[in-house]
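Reading a protein record of the kind used here takes only a little practice. Think of the row as the fold of the chain written in a discrete alphabet. With that in mind, consider the following protein and its fold in token form:
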Amino acid sequence: MKKHPLLKLAAASAAAVLGAAYGIYRVAFYQKPTVHVPSPADMPTRECYRKAMGPDADALARDSFTPVHITAQDGTPLAARYYHHADGAPLAIIFHGYRGYAARDGLGGYTLCTKLGYNVLLPDQRAHGYSGGHTITMGVKERYDARDWAVWAKSHFGPEVPIFLMGVSMGAATVLLAAGLDLPANVCGIVADCGYTSPRAITRKCLPEYLPGFPVGPTYAIGRLGAILFGHFDPEAADCEAAAAQSKVPIFFVHGDTDDFVPYEMGRQNYAACHVKGSRFLTVHGAAHAVSYYHDNPAYTAQATAFLQDCLKRRGFVWPKPTEDA
């Protein structure tokens, strides 16, 4: 029995849409984890940043760490490296960006927090490094992973140890989205460096760069279908502005005003949505994407340190601890 021409056309159209949806999913959201971490010389940043990052990368490479493994709520295995510097110290959990590396994107935060005497946890986000999964969900599922790491830290170190959630780029979106969740009570502050306003907004902004010449609206709609069908997540299921508005802890926002990947205006929008006392915003003039720490290290260090110390003070926590002779 012959199929009606319209049925053939409908079947062919459906197959084409599904094929396109899968193709966009592979381009935008699929990732096979890799444990290879590029050296500063191989990083796609300007020479001045690579030179500044080099000594910090060497120091990180020399620092001893303990591998940590947990299982996310959806069963995805998650991995991290824990760097112990002092008993009872605050803990900074630092999340890297899209297709990034903990040892690269978290380098500035690691360096700052190490100088402050904090302990540091550098997780591999799902579909990155030693963690499992093969879909980057732009923060939709990663926010729950951030909470899982905070819950692990509270259980491992005790409820009296202050925790800071920190992130760069997609890592910033991860911790901003986590701010809208019920976090452990000892999470006392969040640092969001160049985060976007939502997975939907950044996907629509970046699709033309990955697929030039295609109209944004239809391409995004098909890409969203691919994310839902093949990645099992909806880019519209999370909003960083809404999460920032729900935050119960102060947030330190940082953004370079020449960022051409995550627009500076997105950082300002996230900050405008946050009404927690003690939150602040640092504009790093002339900084491109994810290099604010190295572009203006004095300003970044001074303001981030003041923010972290203020968060500890609000909780009645003193660090470093006074010596017995003091």
